[in-house]
Design brief:
Pfam families: Fer4_11. This is Putative electron transfer protein. One of its GO terms (molecular function) is metal ion binding. It is found in: Cell envelope. The protein has 187 residues and is an alpha+beta fold. The protein folds into 2 domains: 126 residues, Alpha-Beta Plaits; 57 residues, Alpha-Beta Plaits (2-Layer Sandwich). It has 6 helices and 7 strands, in the order E-H-E-E-H-H-E-E-H-H-E-H-E. The strands form 3 sheets. Strands 6-1-7 form a 3-stranded mixed sheet. The protein has a two-stranded antiparallel sheet with strand order 2-3. A hairpin with an 8-residue loop joins strand 2 and strand 3. The longest helix is centred in the C-terminal third of the chain and has 10 residues. The radius of gyration is 16 Å and the shape is globular.
Length: 187
């Protein structure tokens, strides 16, 4: 059964529990692979989680000359393989969302790998397992279909033009926050 990470941005309260869980996950070397962005910090407290969207046709993997970035059958785009990464940083430049980071000491790219050691067995990623407001949810296809019917799911794209080659589909599904739809958040 395929499951998806679903982000309901209106629920985010900026608690950063997802970041704490990410740093505590084994194999992450206490580095955050996700981020929380303050949308307009001088005006309100709207925050949104930023993480790899695990593109269906990821620019990071396509731009890697060493084929160090693997895409799993489930759709997770993994961090660069240590034995293959040559440290060229093409992936960090190619990603339209600015997600992959480069570790100069290790000469290696790292990013969210959707906790593949957990999600391949149907266990939610660490960030979704600790989110107190259900901003990050791990949903089945049926649950996602129900969300799609009750919300207008946003499509995260690199361009607004419908036939632009930069537009890409992602495996992470997003409900855009009301503030981006012209609605004001209540707190």
């Amino acid at each position: 059964m395929k499951q998806h990470l679903y982000i309901e941005m209106d629920n985010c309260i900026g608690c950063r529990s997802c970041l704490a869980a990410c740093t505590q996950c084994g194999g992450h070397d206490e580095r955050n692979r996700n981020y929380v962005y303050d949308v307009n910090p001088l005006v309100n407290r709207q925050t949104i989680p930023l993480m790899c969207l695990h593109c269906v046709n990821p620019a990071c993997a396509r731009s890697c000359p060493a084929q160090a970035i693997q895409v799993t059958p489930e759709g997770a785009v993994l961090s660069a393989l240590v034995e293959k990464c040559i440290g060229c940083q093409n992936c960090t430049i190619a990603c339209p969302y600015g997600i992959p980071k480069f570790d100069e000491e290790q000469n290696l790219m790292y990013k969210c790998d959707l906790c593949y050691d957990r999600t391949k067995d149907g266990i939610p990623p660490m960030c979704a397992s600790v989110c107190p407001t259900n901003t990050l949810q791990w949903l089945t296809e049926d649950e996602l279909k129900a969300k799609r019917e009750s919300h207008e799911l946003g499509r995260w794209t690199a361009s607004r033009l419908p036939d632009d080659p930069l537009v890409g589909e992602t495996n992470v599904k997003i409900s855009l926050p009301g503030i981006l739809q012209g609605k004001v958040k209540l707190f």
